[in-house]
Structure formats: C-alpha cells, structure tokens
Amino acid sequence: MDEEYDVIVLGTGLKEGILSGLLSVDGLKILHMDRNDYYGGDSTSLYLHQLWKRYKPPEHLGSSKDYNVDMVPKFMMANGALVRVLIHTNVTKYLNFKAVDGSFVYNKRKIHKVPTNDVEALKSALMDFFEKRGARNFFIYVQDYKENDPRSHEGLDLNKVTAKNLISKYGLDDNTVDFIGHALALHLDDAYLNEPAMDFVKRMKIYAESLARFRGGSPYIYPLYGLGELPQPECKVQFDETGKAFGVTSEGETAKCKKVVCDPSYLPDKVKKVGKVARAICIMSHPIPSTHDSHSVQVIIPRKQLGRKSDMYLFCCSYTHNPGIDLLGPVDEIFFDAYDRYEPTNEHNTDHCFISKSYDATTQFETTVKDVIAMYSKITGKTLDLTVDLSAASAAAEE
C-alpha cells in the first residue's frame, strides 16, 4: 500500500470505534482494521450459534438470529459521557435507544428498587423512618448542589471534605451508605469514603440527571439491537529500528501510519495483567423475580451483602431490545466466561502505540469513556469538548 494514514486503529471494540470516530471528526486520515470475522472485539454481540461455538455444542433454543448476546454488557447513563461522545461523532443518527426499565439493589437478602430522590427515599423499604429522613435531606443536598454556587455548599468544601464526613452529617447507617455508594454513585469498592466527596456527589448527580432525562424507571439506556451496533485477517504492527510503530501488515501488505491505536490483544508484550472479570451469561424465559417484571434491569449486589471482596452485578436485557445464581429464578441455559484485564505499560511518546485498557466489571460505560477520553488527549494533545446538546439522544430514545 502506498497510502499513509495519520492513525491506524486495530480492533472494532467500543473503545476503538469511538476513538476512530473522534479522530475522524478532527479531520485525521484513519484506517480501521480488525483481525476477527465479526465486529465489536471483546464488546461484540453474538448470535446464538456464535455463542454455542464459543462455549459448547448447540441446544434447542430456537433460531440463532433471534438472539443477540453482548459479551461485555454495559448500560449507558442517559446523561453520561458516552452519550455525549456519540452525539459529538454523530453516531446517534444511526442508533435507536430504549430506556431501561429498572434499577435495583440487593440488601438484607431482598431486591429493592433504588430510591433516586427525596420522595422515593421516604417510601423505600430499604430504610426505617428515621433513616429515611436523613436520606431525604441528603438527596436534597445533592440535588441542589452546584459547584459554582457557594450558597448550595452549606459551608462544605467537597474538594477537602471526605465522602465519609459528608455522609456522617446526615447520620446515615452503614446499610444506607452501602446502597448509596454502590447503587447510586456506582463505586466499585469503599475507597471513595476516604477520598474528597466531590467525585461522589458528581456521580450521584449524573445518576439523578440521567434518571430525569427520560423519566423512566432507571437512569440507563441501551441500543435497541445490542452493543454490536456501536462501533479480519491477522494484523501485525510494524516497528522501525528505534522501536517506533510505522505501519500495520495484513495479508502481505503494509499500511503506513504515524500512530497505532489498539486493544491489549494486538500488543501483548506492551501490557500488564491487572485483574480478572468473571461473568455468567444466562438465557431465561422470564424476567428476574422481584424486579416488577422489568424486561431490562440492573441489580447491584454490594460486596458487604455477600461478604465478598467485590460487588456483583446482574444485567438483564430482553426481546424488547432484540438482543438476547439464585436471584435469577429458573435458567434455560448458562455460559460461564472469565477473562484477564490488562493495562498498557508502554511509553506512547516513544513507540507511537496507544493501547486501551481491558473492559472492567462495571455495568455502565462511565469508566470506559474515561479511558477513551484520556487516550484521545494523548493521541491529539487536545482536550475533548463534550459540552453538547443531549436532545439528540433524547429524540433517539424510546420510553
């Protein structure tokens, strides 16, 4: 190939797809390649026969194309960073979204709807009467808080006050703190309690704003036909004698470029293992019990409720989106999956390779987009402006 590109993007996973779009919007010349015979990389959506091929011989669950199973299932916060990025790259013109029915949390051996405002806090079975009062006042504080308006701060500097100290002001017990921190602020562990409260409050505000955007039962939306909508031979990155990437070879031809973007699997010697994610993929003929018969839902199980080191997440999508363990009820088929998580160890200024982090265990995309935005800044040297009008996403979403 005689043509030279600004950036060659390897892999069609969500992160690589978004970066390709962002860089194209900036006017860079992009070549997007994938060695797999399907789109989406680790975040692909598989038909049933592809799922069987990956895990075990086929059974009798109906037509393969009646199913679309996401390998890295995550919801989008309706007012979150991913929606802003998709609008920035005009992807929302080609996608239809559906509001997710419910958001729930496992507490004291029962599934409860997550209270999202002061009114729901007063009705919630998660708390007793006195606890509800404190939670209501806390929700009002978060709802009214504006970073640029000192009158809403109640004398607290959230860049200095820890989340634990902020919460203690409202006298909330450990159970209430558990579901607020993990089911509303969506923290993975309790380290946030000893950190400045600003991030904690901002996370809760994104949750509340996302909930208000479509006035549904949850703050989440999801592509109507699964994540495979977002965005084949072996691809080998070529380096010069100084260790700088200059192109990618596929089927005997080399495309030249100034920079390479890829997921960890393309450059395994430039990443390190940082953990593991374990998933169970279940095919059911009914909604998850105790979730108000919701066809799409998230249930968060905070680690303290199970005596575990990390939270567990239940993510459910039904035929209403056209994709395809005791809390789940009867399961028709179950597939277990575990994969290692990697982070880059290379010096991108030296080798011109920009490697994404592996997908984490969360069931929403905020951490994914943080990685994408950080990679964008490293590649371009610019800060991504996401102050966009979200009405485009609102118009594309269905109640």
TrEMBL record:
<dbReference type="GO" id="GO:0016192">
    <property type="term" value="P:vesicle-mediated transport"/>
</dbReference>
<comment type="similarity">
    <text>Belongs to the Rab GDI family.</text>
</comment>
<dbReference type="InterPro" id="IPR036188">
    <property type="entry name" value="FAD/NAD-bd_sf"/>
</dbReference>
<dbReference type="GO" id="GO:0005096">
    <property type="term" value="F:GTPase activator activity"/>
</dbReference>
<dbReference type="InterPro" id="IPR018203">
    <property type="entry name" value="GDP_dissociation_inhibitor"/>
</dbReference>
<dbReference type="InterPro" id="IPR000806">
    <property type="entry name" value="RabGDI"/>
</dbReference>
<comment type="function">
    <text>Regulates the GDP/GTP exchange reaction of most RAB proteins by inhibiting the dissociation of GDP from them, and the subsequent binding of GTP.</text>
</comment>
<keyword id="KW-0343">GTPase activation</keyword>
<dbReference type="GO" id="GO:0015031">
    <property type="term" value="P:protein transport"/>
</dbReference>
<dbReference type="GO" id="GO:0048046">
    <property type="term" value="C:apoplast"/>
</dbReference>
<dbReference type="GO" id="GO:0005093">
    <property type="term" value="F:Rab GDP-dissociation inhibitor activity"/>
</dbReference>
<dbReference type="GO" id="GO:0007264">
    <property type="term" value="P:small GTPase-mediated signal transduction"/>
</dbReference>
<dbReference type="GO" id="GO:0005737">
    <property type="term" value="C:cytoplasm"/>
</dbReference>
<dbReference type="Pfam" id="PF00996">
    <property type="entry name" value="GDI"/>
</dbReference>
<protein>
    <recommendedName>
        <fullName>Guanosine nucleotide diphosphate dissociation inhibitor</fullName>
    </recommendedName>
</protein>
